[in-house]
Design goal:
130 residues, mainly alpha, PQ loop repeat-containing protein, PQ-loop_rpt, membrane
Length: 130
């Protein structure tokens, strides 16, 4: 018996579960798309809260850490059966997409703050977080 084989933790998911996972991924993308477009068009950060970006990023980051620590066997099983693995980690893929999408408007916000205010103390503090 191979002690590195974690495939027993993987489940065969039905088509409904897979479709739901894909819908969650698309919803994650759609949640941040309006903010990204607004920042790109308006090129201003009026009404944007940097603190909300920080809290969102930290929340999603800790969600990712929690998933990797509590679902380690699922992640480890990916080395044995990639197709089944993909089905089982669809929710985690959606969270990673959210984390990436949070960073896009955050980077845009920092860029436009720098563009409008120059190298202010506020900008330099935000750059540290980024």
């Amino acid at each position: 018996e191979n002690s590195d084989d974690f495939t027993c933790y993987l489940k065969d998911l039905g088509i409904i579960a897979i479709i739901s996972g894909v819908i969650v991924m698309l919803g994650s993308f759609a949640a941040y798309l309006p903010q990204i477009i607004k920042l790109k068009i308006k090129k201003t950060v009026d009404g944007i809260s940097i603190d909300s970006f920080h809290l969102s990023a930290y929340g999603v980051y800790f969600q990712i850490c929690n998933y990797y620590t509590t679902q380690f066997p699922l992640i480890a099983a990916c080395q044995n059966n990639l197709q089944k693995c993909f089905q089982n980690i669809l929710p985690e893929i959606a969270v990673v997409i959210m984390y990436i999408l949070i960073s896009i408007p955050y980077a845009q916000t920092i860029y436009y703050i720098n563009l409008n205010e120059g190298k202010s103390v506020f900008f330099l503090k935000q750059l540290k977080y980024f």
